[in-house]
Amino acid sequence: MPIHPRESDPAVPDPADPAPEGAVRPPRGDLPRSSPPTGPGSDTDEEPGPDAAGGPAPYEDQHTAELRELEDRWRRALADLDNLRKRHTREMERERTVERSRTAAAFLPVLDNLELALTHAGSDPDAIVEGVRAVRDQAVNVLELLGYPRHAETGVAFDPARHEVVGVVQDPDTPPGTVVEVLRPGYGDGERQLRPAAVTVAKRE
For a pLDDT cut of 70, what percent of the chain falls above it? Predict the structure, then answer.
């Protein structure tokens, strides 16, 4: 059987050989380059970042500092509030003491006149009555100066804000709902009322 000669593979041109006439040789710069070596021993290893050694990141340090500053402000605010509360308590107590002293001083002349009336009690009974009435008027004036005027008027319409009904009477000459008699005077008005006047009122038919 005849053996045909096998066609040989086309030879791969050597880059060092001169190119045949009319052939285009690629520039040497277009030859593929091998990738740079990588690995633990390679010179191209990147420098370790800030987190590589396990240390805190910068934003975590800033967050911790802000938390500490806020906590410090909070503690200072609590201390200031406690000092303000204590100072307010001291000032309120001082104001109460001053007001009590002012009220007591206003009634001292009333006590002086009562003692003076008792000193002359055995000499003239009529003078005692006049003296007691004068002392009463003086005490009423002191209460009015303190902001608590006296209410003991009769013949006025009943006012539930100023009067307290303790009885009703039949009086044909008095319009119904009119104060007929004041059994206990009242002092003050509105929010500054010490007590309402105890009165009897004419009832309706």
Answer: 70
The domain of 202 spans 148-205
**Is the model more confident about 136 or about 32?**
136
- Strand, helix or coil at 182? strand
> What pLDDT, in 10s, does the model give residues 175-191?
999 999 999 999 999 88
Provide the number of structural domains found in the chain.
Answer: 1
pTM value is 0.53
The answer to whether residue 134 sits within a structural domain is: no
Domain-embedded: residue 106: no
What are residue 104's phi and psi, to 5 degrees?
Answer: -65, -40
Q: Give the CATH number, domain containing residue 193.
A: 2.30.22.10
Q: Is residue 204 part of a domain?
A: yes
**How many angstroms separate the Cα of 81 from the Cα of each of 44, 76, 88?**
61, 9, 10
CA distance 123 to 90: 51
Three-state SS across 86-98? HHHHHHHHHHHHH
